[in-house]
Amino acid sequence: MVKRPQGLNKSSKSKKKQRVTSELPSGNGGEPEQVTIELDHEVDPDDELGQLNALYDTFVNSPVDNNGFKSPKLLYGVIHECDRLLRNATGALPSRFHNVYALSLLELSKFHVSEGEKRSQQSEQQDEDMPVDTTEAYIEAAIDRADVGLAADEKSPDLLFTRAKAEIALISVKINDVTLTPGVRYMVAVEMIENIQKAIKDYEVAESIILDSPESDANKKKGCLYTKDQLDTIESLLKIAENFNSLEYEREIAPFETNSDPAFEKVDGPLLAEQQRKLAEWSKKRWEQILEKVPEGKGKGKTPEEDGDHSYAVIRRANRGMGEYYLSISAPIISRLEASDDDDGDDDDDDDDDEEVTEEKLNDFQTAKGLLTKAIEYLLKAEHDSEHDAAVYPLIAEAQISLANLLDNDSDEQNVLYNEAVARLKKAQRLGYGDYQEQIAELEL
Amino acid sequence: MTSSTKRENETVQEGEEVKRSKVEDEVKESSAFPAGKSAFSEGLFNDERKDGLKKYIEDSGPYKHGVIQPLVNDELLRKVRKEIMEEIMFTKKETDIYKVYQTGDLANLSGLGEEELKRLSSLNTLRNALYSQEFRDYLSYVTGAGPLSGVKKDLSINVYQKGCHLLNHDDVIGSRRVSYILYLPDPDEPWQAKWGGALRLYSTLTPNIPSTDWELKIPPAWNQLAFFTVQPGLSFHDVEEVYVDKPRMSISGWFHIPQPGEPGFIEGEQEEIEGLSSLKQLESKKLEEYDYPKEEQHKPSEEVDVTKFEQDDRDYLAKYLNEKLLDEGSLEKLNETFCNESMIEINDFLNAEYAKIVKEAIDVDDIAKVPGKSTEVPQPWEVARPPHKARYLYLGEHSQKVEPTKTLAAHTKLQEVRELFQSVAFYRWLYKLSGMAPESDSVIARRFRPGYDFTLATTSNSEDSVLEGTLSLTPSKGWLDGEVGGYELTMSVDEESKEADPAVYGAQTEGDDDPVLLTSQANWNVFSLIVRDSGILRFVKYVSRNATGSRWDVSATWQVQPSEDDDEEGEETEN
Question: Of B144, B143, B149, nearest to B226 (Cα)?
Answer without folding.
Answer: B143
